[in-house]
Amino acid sequence: RLDGLRVLLATWGTTGDIAPYTGIAVALRDAGCHVTVVTSRRYADHFTVHGLTVRAIPLDRQEALAAQPKSRRAKRLNGQAITTTTATTMLNAAADGTDILLAHPLLHPQAALIAEGLNLPCIGVYTVAHAMMLPRLITVAPGLHRLTDPLVKLTLSPAYAPALAQLRIALDLPPRRCNDVVRVLRHQPVTYGINSALLPDRYPLPPGHHMTGHWTPARPPGWKPDSRLTDFLDSGPPPVYFGFGSMHRIDRDTLIQTITTSTRNLRLRAVVQAGWAGLASETDDVITIGECPH
Fold first, then answer.
1. For the segment 193-239, what is each residue's pLDDT rounded down to a tens digit?
2. Which domains does the chain have, with CATH numbers?
3. Angle between helices 72-95 and 108-118 (to 10 degrees)
């Protein structure tokens, strides 16, 4: 049923936004699909190493600026540059021939409008929902998801407005006075690579949204763990994993102390990924590692 299906998979962000999609892309390719991945040049090799076709988004300058402190206006302008550049790359890739678009949440607004203009199906493939950007609120009151989700989308809308207006012109779609993300994504189906056990009780999902459980990243060909990690894994019961990815503006010492104290009190062992924050700890029951497929 999937044999020969042309799939355009679009994802962007940091490693946590990229790794799960390598597993999706490889699985679709192995099922007989012709997969084209749209992602930034920074992460293209995560897919090309598996023999996948990549249409690279030229975002080197914008990604460098995103990591620098700047004013609110500068953040907005850089965000608009990112969304318009990704929209152009995605439209060109889709116009070359595709049967379905699959999109990361950050690229879903552009993908949804491209799909509308080209009369194609589009599915959001999310590892995080928009409402989850306000974790404290949804933890205290999961029922407020119906408010927090559109609130986050409206907050993001100014960054997408120029890109969506540009796409409407290119696709000959009727202009909109307000190109907001809520309107564009209102009836879009979404699949989440999330386990419901990690969400608050009674966490509601809109109609057409469902969870599949976590998506396992594709392991790079020839990858092997270093002996330090395998020795630790073999020396006791399975550890708990802690990873904070691209979060770098955090108190490293306090965070490591919290992890080591908690695991000691609970009589657990832990593997901590250093991440962008450069976390470091070495005890009998806690080990810090660098990049590692997980």
1. 988 877 766 677 788 999 998 899 999 888 888 888 898 999 999 99
2. 6-211 (3.40.50.2000), 227-289 (3.40.50.2000)
3. 40
